[in-house]
Amino acid sequence: MPYPTSRDGVLEKLSGEGLIVRTPEGWSISNLAAILLAKRLDAFSSSLARKAPRVVIYEGIDKLNTREDKPGNRGYAVGFDSLVDFVHSAAPQNRFVEQAIREEVKMFPKQALRELIANALVHQDFLVSGASVMIEMYADRIEISNPGIPPIRVERFIDEYRSRNERLADLMRRLGICEEKGSGVDKVVKAAEVFQLPAPDFRVGDHRTTAILYAHQDFSIMSKADRIRACYQHCCLMYVSNQSMSNQSLRERFGVSEAKVATVSLVIGATKEAKLIKQDESETSSTRYARYLPFWA
Length: 297
Known about the structure:
This protein has helices at about 5-15, 30-35, 45-50, 75-90, 95-100, 110-125, 165-175, 185-195, 225-240, 245-255, 260-275; strands spanning about 20-25, 25-30, 55-60, 65-70, 135, 140-145, 200-205, 210-215, 275-280, 290-295. By secondary structure, the chain is an alpha+beta fold. The strands form 3 sheets. Strands 4-3-5-6-8-7 form a 6-stranded mixed β-sheet, covered by helices on one side. A two-stranded antiparallel sheet has the order 1-2. The chain has a two-stranded antiparallel ribbon with strand order 9-10. The protein is elongated, with a radius of gyration of 22 Å.
């Protein structure tokens, strides 16, 4: 955008974006501007300061021993890149991927962290008092949660999008932080597949929504629930890419050989029993070459 030629033009542009508000005393900075652009949120109000994301790193797989507790105090836009960099650098190494490509790789893909943190910031319920976006890292997983219940079912996160805070989402999109087109979860699922991680888990509690990224696990030790979730998400990812899942594509997702055809067929069968996927009737009826679609397709 061209920079306005006058001071009044600047004020008019900021006002039009809802970043400043005219009052009888002059101009006031809006909560929207503060939550995005503040260098120090606590300089505005304690309630805004409590909306800053907080990072907690634990020593093990539970909350017993805290290694680092870092509350934030910067606006989402000005602090976003440094927040993602800090979380990514704190993650353990992914030895499985390191061996394959012979370079140091962090356990959690940076793009996946970026998308999940941006989603948590954009989709939080600001009306829930005393609660903020939480990023909690354990030895075997990272949990990113936000206050509020999502407006859509978790099973539809991959293919649907509905923003709770439209003005915030629009500005964060134009600032290059999020895309506001529903592809964020797709990227998270794809990154988990590329890094050979278990499928991300999305959970809804009474007051919070949590996204969980797990550290690498061999297919042989994955639980039945992990395998079903991975199968469903892979099927969704293939469908939104205008493709369909097969036994072969799922074997590639799990990183297993053709010798595991029967085992992967059992995973597909269990996912069908859970009513998460269905066979594509327009394709062959052969079990070996069958194609599958998400239940909602």
